[in-house]
Design goal:
Six copies of one chain form a homohexamer. The first copy, chain A, is of the alpha+beta class and about 240 residues long. Chain A has a single domain, classed as Ribosomal Protein S5, domain 2 (2-Layer Sandwich), CATH 3.30.230. A five-stranded mixed β-sheet of chain A has the order 1-2-3-5-4. Chain A is globular, with a radius of gyration of 18 Å. Chain A starts with 13 loop residues before the first strand and ends with a helix. The relative contact order of chain A is 0.18. Chains in contact: A-B, A-D, B-C, C-E, D-F, E-F. Chains E and F meet through helix 2, strand 8, strand 9 and helix 7 of E and helix 2, strand 8, strand 9 and helix 7 of F. Strand 9 of chain B pairs antiparallel with strand 9 of chain C, so a sheet runs across the interface. Chains A, B, C, D, E, F: Its EC number is 2.7.7.56. Chains A, B, C, D, E, F: This is Ribonuclease PH.
């Protein structure tokens, strides 16, 4: 029995609120239950140094958590003077996930930075961030298309979304909340495209090692969940 | 004529949305027009080292701006590795303003940290932050009172709120938005209590120096505006 | 009764010692009683990036305190690895104050940096720094004038000086020393020009909030004091 | 055809040189072909703060690359003033992998730090590091056992080893060297125990997304390779 | 011919101004010609962690240069966020030099920190700093003796002073100023005690290597110069 | 009697293993007994900013110690976020020593960085590093010569090597190991060229000051030792 009373294959309520920022070229607040992430896309007319004169653009991401997004207040990273290892891991993952569905040459020599800031955390912040970041990126590209800068269909080749699955109380469950996450034996994050291709898999045994069969079960759950998320993304941008 | 069409003594629409955080002991999103600040209050059962065994508690604040809260994306302070001078100035101001209406002995050896994170900026983020921080602090104290830890009336001696005033296009105006702020000849921030006492005054000539008469005009505007803000705080917590 | 025996409207003895540095284009040691600040002006043939090709120059300031300028030794900021919030607040204030009386276009694409280093502190370091920085800036401009680079009268439009006032033992007093400063109920800093314009006002209630009347009293004290300081600046450069 | 002429399921030559450090309680240089990692285990009689008085110990890892371990010299992280995101990701992975086979309660309130420093890199540094770190950890525990501090069999529950697999030139290959790694379409790292349990899976699409079938192929390769590595570990400590 | 017209064995005019700080337990401004260093001694009733409960005290030093102490303004180390290698080298040297003449057990569990801040630089700042630091340390110990805390003669076993010598224009000269220092072929710093013992020798070939005979010549010059400096220290504290 | 049983003028066994790095243009592992340092030379086609368009190149060095190179594990400098004072002193010394035998104009506008990383420490790491760095530098220049970039004989004017000497148990001894180093009364490092010129001398009294005669004794020991080291370098590159 899950603490939330959800079924093993039942995700939390997922919503996207678009155009939440007056300034950003694309933005949304994505909610996976009590996990709320603000995603903004910022267009800059330049690329990183290593792409200068390559004709290619870049899509990157930064991730942050507000100090009291969590049950206990965490030290503000800006005050601590550096981003922790977990933050860096996550923002690198978000960037890679988005670039997997972007044609950087079609984008041209521009950079889009997606900022994913967790307003409230209840497990699964990185998967919510990726799923919402796609919406912000899409809206930024629409903004550019409206100004004749790109063709969205040329740049954005597919959807990308992510979900966590894990083994909690000996059962495979989808979309773990904080209570489940902190007690899970195995924790896995999956990033997939709209057409079902896999972009990233991260599986970690928190307690005892897991088997291939268990992992296959988690992936099956993820596949169904991500298909649902992609459907919701489609409705959100319709 | 103000860019927004407001009258010289007309503040933007101000709203407080309380209890926006599942985790924080007190929280609100305060909006002064398009300036939106998330304020959370976090209670810790400890004081800073210099107050150990003094019987006194502490109220402090931290301030941050999401990278794309502004028209152009700013570098994330956590990535830059330090908080800028402006950030530090503002968070020191918020902390002082709140402490001016708190009886630290009545609070006891506890620390309340108010995090003020600007989700969207359109001028006046520090004054919105102070005004909203008071709500978050109040709600945190109510939370403590419900658990028998303090008497709110003993700890929180008064309201505190803040507003900016300035000379824009040769006219004294209240609650400057970004367009006005960036073109103002004089910019002043006032922090006052519910009973009309002054807690902080900061006045800066951006262009040519200002006169005592001009400054008195700004203060008169501020006095009326802050009285309105305090009234709104009262309604918000009613 | 003030600890120093001074009258409420009596400043400490103020002196300027010019040309104290063999290297700097302008320099002075300013003393407000036991508060001693070394101010040096350094000319550089470049501007900050945001002013390139604008035809404008820049005047900026940095502030520091020697570790044992104070009663108890403070940690050296270079060893701590960052400048504290107070340091940043003060150096931003000094820079703004000086720029208020400088015509940056008449200066041309050059940068003058005023370093204000507190050799000994006894309250009022920021106001002494501003008052002395003006002398260093003036002397730097004279140095430039002697080389045909600028006309001092075109660049330096007015004097600027600063003084602190506060409410100590229920009385409004001028130019607080450390003993008064640490016990003051209200503390205010005023920066004004030679012609009486106000450049900066910062007023803070340390204990209970203050009234508009009290603040007006502090401003009146400041106005007289700053007029005296400007007179002393005139004599110093005569 | 692989650049090295290896077969798709052929790992590079793997060797362990034990006891390479005069000082460390356990140490080895592990080589996967031209990838050489020095692993040292350091015992400290203390635990991290969050485990004080818990009766539990801790095993952690740090990872570094000498500046010229790579084809082009990289900036020294100590000189840069921080560890990069990749470094932090890898050292967190090594620590988690080792803790998966350690009984922290049987270890008692001690900390073992495994330093993995890459002397020369040619792809697969993290998998070589994990595989060698196990040897260093084992030898440290033997050192402790010889002094009556622990029973190795109680603390170290199993072997752990790691290998990378990927899709290179449309073929699934094991143990990618740098040339393959930088051109691979998909890159995956697997960490498994001696009894075949999975500890960590990380799969990343570098170019186009991959399929479940492709991933299953990589995992099959990894399973065989890790079994070989565990066998080599057994011989190394025999 | 030396740029200053001095003879090869002629030091610059050396002066000590004692008691320049209202706050420090000991202080002096030492001048070697145009090189001016403010030395303050700060007493703290604690020792570094590694000496706790050892019965021993500690003497340490910090060194800094004001940004415009030099011909061209240097970046402020506090703003740069770290102390450079040269600064660290020098402050370690000053500390070692002073401890060579201090009986740390006779000092007892206290720490004296000598801050050496260069107000104006014209070569030889480290040797001036050591020579002046001894005066500040001495005066701090006298301050302590007056309060019954130590016996100066027990703690301070001897004088210590320092001088630079070098080969300039093929001649061995003493006490190089900046012009000589920047053109010297060989540069050496000597730290010696009042009784003629050597505490530190640092010799560096700036251009071509030097011979033992040349080095012996520099040491002979240094020996005479340091004897003079010690004599001046004796007069200064008389 | 020395702890190692060596005679007072007997160095430890010294070996050079060349070409230890697949990537670096020059490399060696130098061993002075149990002190092992990996030296790699990296060629870059650029110079530091201050040498641009000067026609001159640059040779510099960086130094690091692996965390468990020592008897007790030291904090990793990359994790600490800065290089300590000792590290900076040593790497500056290595760079100066190498440049003393290099004709930077003959090198041309290129930079060679020598990384000296201590794999295992037992005293004398800086002298081993200098001695081994010369080999790595030489081999890098040979690599360049093979590509027609330089003439080795034009660039590398002489050998350079280094040794420590000290007074241990009242006797002058050469090449101190850790046990001797930590108990020595005087510790000196000498850097000399193949033709006997002195490049650097650093002598420090750890306990009581030393005499000129004692220092002369140390230098005599060093001269013989360095001559031997240069002979070994010659054999190593033969």
């Amino acid at each position: 029995m899950r603490p939330s009373g959800r079924k093993t294959d039942q995700m939390r309520k997922v919503t996207f609120e678009r155009n939440v920022s007056k300034h950003a070229e694309g933005s949304c607040v994505v909610k996976f239950g009590d996990t709320h992430v603000l995603c903004t896309a910022s267009l800059e007319e330049k690329t990183p140094p290593w792409l200068r004169n390559s004709g290619k653009g870049w899509v990157t991401a930064e991730y942050g958590m507000l100090p009291r997004a969590t049950g206990e207040r965490m030290k503000r990273e800006a005050a601590a003077g550096k981003q922790g290892g977990r933050t860096q891991e996550i923002q690198r993952l978000i960037g890679r996930s988005l670039r997997a569905v972007v044609d950087l040459t079609a984008l041209g020599e521009k950079q889009i930075t997606i900022d994913c800031d967790v307003l409230q955390a209840d497990g699964g912040t990185r998967t919510a961030a990726i799923t919402g970041a796609w919406i912000a990126l899409h809206d930024c590209l629409r903004w550019m298309e409206a100004r004749g800068m790109v063709k969205v269909e040329k740049v954005l080749k597919d959807h990308v979304a992510a979900i966590s699955c894990g083994i909690f109380a000996s059962q495979s469950v989808i979309d773990l909340d904080y209570l489940e996450d902190s007690a899970a034996e195995t924790d896995a994050n999956f990033v997939m495209t709209g057409s079902g291709g896999i972009v990233e898999i991260q599986g970690t045994a928190e307690g005892k090692p897991f088997t291939e069969e268990e992992f296959a079960g988690l992936m099956a759950l993820a596949r169904t969940g991500i298909a649902e998320l992609v459907e919701m993304q489609k409705q959100a941008i319709a």
